[in-house]
């Protein structure tokens, strides 16, 4: 039951920010594999919520955000050069999954394609970040002497 609460905490943290979920998992002393899985699941859930409720979100954003005459910024550059694939792979790291999904929806990306590439990007970054933290922590651990 204890692992279930820890996994839920990591998943919930991942729904808000992938970067936050991974340290939470290590603080709760979950195994790195579970941290990677549950942080990715949380981020995928949040991206899915934004993407599939995105029609109303897109309309709301277009009403409230002034259109720029010149496209600028990192996400615009990625969108112009790489499209949905680039946005899906880069945004989980650069902006976070929910905001990246909102950007994709506001740019008119097809929902199924956006969800696929956001999920792939989330899984890749979850694995890389979890492994990086795990290997980084191993550098500070004192080896046991027998």
Overview of the molecule:
This protein has seven helices and no strands. With 146 residues, it is an all-alpha fold. The chain starts with a helix and ends in an 8-residue tail after the last helix. The chain has one domain.
The largest sheet is: none
Unreliable sequence segments: none
Helix-strand topology string:
HHHHHHH
Name the quaternary structure: single chain
Radius of gyration: 17 Å
Mean residue pLDDT: 86
Number of domains: 1
What shape does the CA trace take?
A: elongated
Strand content: under 5%
Alpha-carbon distance between the two ends: 33 Å
The helix content is: over 70%
Secondary structure tally: strands: 0
Q: Please identify the structural class as seen in this structure.
A: mainly alpha
Q: Figure out the total of helices.
A: 7
Question: Which key phrases capture this entry?
Answer:
about 150 residues; mainly alpha; about 80% helix
Question: Summary?
Answer:
The protein is mainly alpha-helical and 146 residues long. It contains 7 helices and no strands.
Topology record:
Layout: H1 2-16, H2 18-27, H3 32-52, H4 54-64, H5 74-94, H6 97-106, H7 111-138
């Amino acid at each position: 039951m204890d692992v279930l609460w820890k996994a839920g905490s990591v998943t919930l943290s991942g729904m808000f920010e992938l970067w936050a979920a991974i340290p939470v998992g290590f603080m709760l002393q979950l195994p790195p594999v579970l941290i990677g899985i549950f942080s990715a699941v949380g981020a995928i859930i949040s991206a899915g919520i934004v993407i599939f409720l995105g029609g109303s979100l897109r309309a709301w954003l277009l009403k409230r955000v002034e259109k720029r005459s010149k496209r600028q910024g990192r996400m615009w550059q990625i969108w112009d050069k790489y499209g949905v694939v680039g946005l899906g792979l880069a945004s989980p790291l650069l902006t976070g999954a929910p905001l990246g999904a909102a950007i994709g929806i506001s740019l008119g990306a097809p929902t199924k394609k956006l969800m696929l590439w956001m999920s792939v990007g989330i899984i890749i970054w979850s694995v890389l970040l979890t492994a990086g933290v795990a290997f980084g922590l191993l550098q500070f651990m004192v080896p046991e002497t027998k």
